[in-house]
Amino acid sequence: MSEPQARPAPPRLSAAARAELDAIRRRFPTTEAALIPALHIAQREWGGWLPEEAIEAVAVELELPAATVYGVVSFYDLFHQRPVGRHRIRVCTNLSCQLRGADEVLELLRQELGVGEDEVTPDGRCSYVHFECLGSCDTAPMMMVDDQYHENLTPLRVRRIVKDLA
Amino acid sequence: MAAFEPVLTRNVGHPEALTLQGYKRGGGYEGLRQALAMQADEIIEAVKASGLRGRGGAGFSAGLKWSFIPKGGDKPKYLVCNADESEPGTFKDRLLMEHDPHQLIEGCAICCWAVGAATCYIYIRGEYTKAAEILERALEEAYRGGILGGSVLGSKFKLDMWVHRGAGAYICGEETGMLESLEGKRGQPRVKPPFPALVGAFGAPTVINNVETLCNVPHIVTRGADWFKSIGTNEKNTGPKLYAVSGHVERPGTYELPIGIPFRELLDVAGGMHRGGRLKAYIPGGASAPILTAEHIDLPMDFDSLAKAGSMLGSAAVIVLDDETCMVRSVARLAKFFNHESCGQCTPCREGTNWMELLLDRLEHGDGREQDAALLLSICKNVAGNSLCALGDAAVGPVKSLVERFPDEIEQHVRDRGCPFPRRRWFQDAA
Ligand SMILES: Cc1cc2nc3c(=O)[nH]c(=O)nc-3n(C[C@H](O)[C@H](O)[C@H](O)COP(=O)(O)O)c2cc1C
Ligand code: SF4
Ligand code: FES
Q1: What's the CA gap between B263 and B241, in Å, rounded?
Q2: Distance A15 CA to ligand 1 centre (A)
Q3: Which of A86, A150, B181, B220 is 20 to 30 A from residue A129's alpha carbon, by CA?
Q4: Is some CB atom of chain B closer than 8 A to the CB atom of A134?
Q5: Distance between CA atoms of residues B396 and B328, nearest Å
Q6: Candidates B48, B104, B170, B175: which one to mutate for ligand 1, based on the most atoms within 8 Å of Cβ?
């Protein structure tokens, strides 16, 4: 494992991602301000989460200490330091949704997927978590699958949405 | 009530307004054109005179805030539009951004011209990907159409505007938490003073305004402060207002009405109580607002009337609860939210929100003690006013009002060793 010459090249963002980031960096007077956009890009490149090498790649790219990057990653709910399913389901359980059946939606997901919150299904297809208000309280109960809002949920619709996930 | 002609939501349901051409056809960017022909001070005076107060929660005069930005100087100035919208119950800014992005861009541009800012960041919560994409498309068009960039509408005014996506943290809606986050850091609020008007983004003078606040601005420019003041309850509560109504009503949704409409009328507009249920309580201004009861049904929904009743208009997110709802369970959920979102910098807030969640959960699940109500009140007393930002006070709002307005429900939870309300099966009940 520890062959001296076998040190892998440090991980990098793809060329396309670096170009995207370069354009964003020009919007700010400091480099650090591009950190959150950079992490969004890196998370996309690494399949929905930020393994150590993704964090290192961002640190190298923006010339920031890795510890600074970790500190930021751990602060925000949308950045993940553990693998997630191919699809990520977020069920809003805050008050307006709780008043209209959100807990039942969460329970239904547990039954349909057969795993607990924040666990990935054995086929790697998806993981689900309860979440804070997603700004869609008038269409409660609701959940987000990847970037898509699913509103006015019913048990039937939840089952169908889950079944259709590739 | 006479029908109210929508101002801010007039383009909702008119997808042609998403394009620059369509927006212009409806009179769009006329406010910006007129503003560019005015002195910056004149605009600030008009906004002051209109009585426009911040729609993000605190209700501070927008014109006054703009007037705090120093004139001249060699530092750049910034506008940061607060599109973080994470207050539970609030969904009005999403509507404005998804249906009328140019209205927001126009409002931001006028503000920038008035305060001398050449850069505007629209800080949008990370979950709002659809709204962010719509805004980005609109910004692109605005650049191509000569609204933004090196020469705004052919003038000497230069303006850059960007969408900046957050990453999931309620505290980044607090203005200085937002500035930290914009600078690429953990979103932990700053000590004030200095205020952002002097030391804001990247150490430079910065205006921070809510989406809805800024959307009002083009209309104030084109229709005048007097028109704006003619809408509302009184001199101090003026203009159109978006109310985001959710919970146990027949037609949850965003309703644009004159600010200060009585809650009873708003409830009516939202279709009344769900399935003819009875009103037990309502939260008039998002999760941070102290809870009101059916007794307060005739209160005008404006800043001052609600403050006088011991609550607040906040973000005007109105959550309606019927009489089959357990108040302990409802407030426990809000307490869990505040505990999760406390940034942890101040001990009273970090520890207090943790204890509030713990005690309320314990009550709901049958481990409540006789002294819990008093204990909750003492925690509230220790958190209120003892924290760096307003999240601490916000967390106290619902808990304190629960103990004060629903003492019987707490007692009953202790006596019955658990929740006295039958667990609702929403989908069966609603079937
Ligand atoms: C914990 C906390 C969260 C907040 N969240 C938001 C928010 O999501 N959107 C918003 O506009 N204002 C929010 N505010 C209020 C802002 O700090 C600030 O007052 C507001 O953006 C100013 O704009 P306005 O004067 O136009 O209302 C929040 C405040 C606190 C204390
Ligand atoms: S009051 Fe709470 S959220 Fe605000 S700075 Fe202190 S710990 Fe953070
Ligand atoms: S409470 Fe669920 S989206 Fe707001």
Answers
A1: 13
A2: 37
A3: B181
A4: yes
A5: 14
A6: B175
- Contact yes or no for B5/B88 (Cβ under 8 A): no
Residues in chain B: 431
pLDDT tens-digit series, residues B234-270: 999 999 999 999 999 999 999 999 999 999 999 999 9
Q: Read off the pLDDT band of A1 (50, 70, 90).
A: very low
State the closest ligand 1 atom to the C-alpha of B53, by its place in the atom list counted from 1: 25
Q: Is the CB of B257 under 6 A from ligand 2?
A: no
Alpha carbon of B84 to ligand 1 centroid (Å): 8
Q: Which A residues 52-71 touch B at CB under 8 Å?
A: 71
The beta strand positions in B206-354, using DSSP E, are 206-210, 232-234, 237-238, 240-247, 253-258, 279-283, 292-293, 317-322
d(CA B389, CA A59): 30
A96 touches chain B (CB under 8 A): yes
Any idea which residue has 């006013």 for tokens?
B385
Interface pTM, i.e. ipTM: 0.96
Condensed to tens digits (0 to 9), the pLDDT of residues A62-81 reads 999 999 999 999 999 999 99
